[in-house]
Specification:
This protein is α/β, with parallel strands linked by helices and 314 residues long. The protein has helices at 14-25, 54-64, 78-83, 85-104, 142-160, 183-195, 217-230, 247-256, 284-290, 298-313, and strands at 3-7, 28-33, 44-48, 68-71, 111-117, 165-170, 173-174, 202-205, 211-213, 215-216, 236-239, 244-246, 263-266. The N and C termini lie far apart (41 Å).
C-alpha cells in the first residue's frame, strides 16, 4: 500500500485531498497540522508538525517514509499577507525550504507536489488570457511573491538534486467548509446570516469587477492526485476550470439561490491595495498529461457552499 503525507492538512483542502487519496486510490494517508489546530479524519493518521522547525519535518518523514508528499502548508490569504508579510514569507518560503531539505536528506526519493497559486501570474494582459504555465510572472501582492519564490526554489531543487518534484499553480478553489476570508464563502455566509435574521439585509463586498477562475475543491484534489501519478518531474501545472467569472456574476448566482431581498454595499476594508483584473487558467497541459477535466459545475458548488453555511449558522 502506497503512503501519502499531506503537510498542512488542517486547511480547507487537506481533508478533501485525504478523502480522495484514501477512497479512490487506497493509499495509507498521513496528515500534519499545527499543535494548536484541531483535525480529525477517520481514515487518516494525524500528526503535529510545525514546518518552521526543520528537525520536526525530518523526524516525521523518517517516521512515515511516504511515497507521496503533498505540501499544502501555507499562509494562503492575500488580505492577511498584506497585513503580515513577515509571517507569509516565513511560512511560504522558509517552511518550503525546510520540507525540501528534509526530503533531500532521505535515503530514497518520494514524489513531492508543491502547491502554488494562480496569483503568481499577477497582472495578466488581455492577449495572455488564458494564461499558460510559461507566461511571464508579475506578482502583484506579497502572497503571490512568496509563491513565485516557492516555485523557483522547487525548480532549482528538482534540477540541482534530481528530486522527484513537481509544482502546481492552483487558481481559486471553492466549496463547503471554506473559511469566510475568501470571497465565495464570505458571500454565502452573509446570505445565510441574512436569511436566518442574524444581520440586516445588506451584503458588504469588495471589488466586483475582478474576474477569477473558480474550481470546486473536489475537482482540484482530483487533479493533485492525478499529477503525482502522471505528472513530469520539474514541471509546473495550472489547476483551474479554464474559465474566469466576474465576482459580480458569482454574487448574482448566489443571490439567485436565495429568496431574501438583499442590498449590496461596498466595504472599503474589502478592497485590496492592488487587485489583478483577470486571472484565467490555460489547463491544456494538465488535461493532456493526466486526462483531468472539471466535473462539478459552478452553480452546484455555490449551492452546496450556501447550504453548508445555512447549516452552520443554524
Amino acid at each position: 500500500m502506497k503512503k501519502a503525507l499531506i503537510i498542512g492538512a488542517a486547511g480547507f483542502v487537506g481533508s478533501y485531498l485525504a478523502k480522495e487519496l484514501w477512497q479512490n486510490y487506497g493509499m495509507e494517508v498521513h496528515v500534519s497540522k499545527l499543535p494548536k489546530e484541531h483535525l480529525e479524519i477517520a481514515y487518516a493518521h494525524v500528526h503535529n508538525l510545525d514546518i518552521l522547525q526543520k528537525e520536526e519535518v525530518s523526524g516525521l518523514l523518517y517516521e512515515i517514509l511516504p511515497d507521496y508528499i503533498f505540501h499544502l502548508a501555507a499562509q494562503s490569504s492575500v488580505s492577511i499577507a498584506w497585513k503580515n508579510p513577515g509571517l507569509t514569507v516565513d511560512v511560504n518560503v522558509k517552511g518550503c525550504i525546510h520540507v525540501l531539505d528534509a526530503v533531500r536528506e532521505l535515503f530514497y526519493k518520494p514524489r513531492i507536489l508543491l502547491v502554488g497559486s494562480g496569483e503568481e501570474y499577477g497582472r495578466i494582459y488581455a492577449e495572455e488570457v488564458p494564461v499558460t504555465e510559461s507566461n511571464h510572472l508579475r506578482p502583484g501582492n506579497i502572497y503571490a511573491a512568496t509563491k513565485v519564490c516557492q516555485n523557483m526554489i522547487g525548480t532549482i531543487y528538482a534540477q540541482a538534486y534530481d528530486m522527484d518534484l513537481l509544482m502546481v499553480r492552483s487558481f481559486n478553489h471553492i466549496g463547503p467548509g471554506q473559511a469566510p476570508i475568501f470571497v465565495v464563502s464570505d458571500f454565502c455566509r452573509q446570505v445565510a446570516q441574512i436569511e436566518a435574521g442574524m444581520k440586516e439585509p445588506v451584503m458588504y463586498v469588495g471589488n466586483l469587477k475582478a474576474r477569477r477562475d473558480f474550481t470546486d475543491v473536489r475537482d482540484v484534489v482530483r487533479a493533485y492526485a492525478l499529477l503525482v501519478l502522471y505528472g513530469k518531474p520539474g514541471e509546473t501545472y495550472n489547476v483551474g476550470s479554464g474559465h474566469a467569472y466576474a465576482i459580480r456574476e458569482v454574487l448574482d448566482l448566489i443571490l439567485s439561490l436565495s429568496g431574501a431581498n438583499i442590498r449590496i454595499e461596498t466595504d472599503p476594508n474589502k478592497i485590496r491595495p492592488v487587485d489583478v483584473a483577470v486571472i484565467e487558467a490555460d489547463i491544456t497541459k494538465l488535461h493532456q498529461e493526466t486526462g483531468w477535466r472539471q466535473s462539478i459545475p459552478l452553480v452546484q458548488t455555490l449551492q452546496e457552499t450556501l447550504d453548508d453555511w445555512r447549516a452552520r449558522v443554524e
